[in-house]
Amino acid sequence: MTLSRVYTRGRTKKAAVRRSAEKESLTAAGRAGFVARGVVYVLIGALALRIALGGSGEQADRQGALAQVAEQPFGEVMLWALAVGFGCMALWRGSRAVGRRGPRRKAPSRALDGGRAVFYAFVCWATATYAAGGSQGSSGDAKSQGWTASTLELPYGRHLVGAAGAVLIGVGVVLAVRAMMRRFLRQLDLGSLKGRTRQVVTALGVTGGVARGAVFAAAGVFILTAAVQADPDEAKGVDATLRSFSHTPVGPWLLAAVAAGLILFGVFSFASARWRRL
Q1: Confidence band, pLDDT 50/70/90 cuts, at residue 16
Q2: Which of 93, 148, 169, 174 is most deeply packed, by most CB within 10 A?
Q3: Which pLDDT band, with edges at 50, 70 and 90, does 102 fall under?
Q4: CB 168 within 8 A of CB 256
Q5: Where are the alpha helices (DSSP H) in 53-139?
């Protein structure tokens, strides 16, 4: 064997070890991200359930969830852990957007992962700021109304706001439909999911995904209404959107059902951290 071939094999082996280490690191980052997502969804669902049961409660959104974490023993440490988790999720999503993941990773899928990476990077920054002693700023409802008001003042602002609302409705419908079709099973390691465990995880994914989609779609309806009426006050954040479910003919029971679904989606996120193929 020539010296050049030995050198080439050595470089190939080193490259393979490096790729394996990178894959393991990104896999760990993805799992940490799903855990962080699960914690927030469980807390949001619990806050919404408290509202449904008659308590005015704190804000049933990400800000309210972080406030709940901060009040716990070692709350600051837990907040920093969540910030790290969201940062890991941003890193994992970003790697899927720009990395080579096989022929099925087409441009729309990469763009979607890129958008998610930007979103989780923002959530990471906001969580870290709060953990460091900063304020969470205005409420989610105020932010949604402020964005809507600013956009409505632009040329074709009503069209832009309406398009945003329509997109959000579409996202909600897609999330719910995909959940009902059990599309998420394609992303799980089904070889490790057998018997009752698979049935439970499937139920979590379907129920939680439908509830999550319902919240997205409802928020989109409010934004679309704001565009039609040219009234930014019609736009709502997650907290007000959830509370609106209790104003339907079904009353607080619908809010309780959606809240329970969000809790289940949080638990499904924990299951994803364990069994998703990353």
Answers
A1: low
A2: 148
A3: very low
A4: no
A5: 62-70, 75-98, 107-131
